[in-house]
Amino acid sequence: MPEFSKDCIDMSNAASTYLGIIAGAIIGGIVSWWIYNRQKKTSNSQDRILSRIKELEENHDAILKKLADFDDKHESSLDTMKELNKKVDFLLNGDDD
């Protein structure tokens, strides 16, 4: 390879090809690593977001269950108050007769 001598003016086709292959491999490796790194960061971010969504869904389900329990207790209290109101009305109206 005459390119390594001190008096070299021009590269041979073979040396140019080898240099192009080496430069392409280096650039391709860098681009591939960069793409892999970006995809890994994106994947990790998506995993964190999905786990947070799962936690929020679990909390949401717990809140909905508590609200349903509260609604059932409220309905029961309301029914009891209506029954008590009927009894009071009956007793008040029954005394007037």
Fold blueprint:
Blueprint: H1 13-96
Description of the molecule:
The mean pLDDT is 88. This protein starts with 12 loop residues before the first helix and ends with a helix. 87% of the residues lie in helices and 0% in strands. It has 97 residues and is mostly helical.
In sequence order, what are the helices and strands, one letter per element? Answer: H
Task: Please tell me what the overall shape is.
Answer: rod-shaped
| Uncertain residue ranges | none
The SS-based structural class is: mainly alpha
Q: How much helical structure, as a percent, in the residues?
A: over 70%
Report, as a whole number of angstroms, the end-to-end distance. 127 Å
* Share of residues in strands: under 5%
Number of H- or I-type helical stretches? 1
Rg from Cα: 40 Å
**Number of extended strands:** 0
- Overall pLDDT: 88
Q: For this entry, what is the oligomeric state of its chains?
A: single chain
The profile of the biggest β sheet is: none
Summarize the structure.
With 97 residues, this protein is mainly alpha-helical.
Record keyword descriptors for this entry.
single chain, 97 residues, mainly alpha, 1 helix, 87% helix
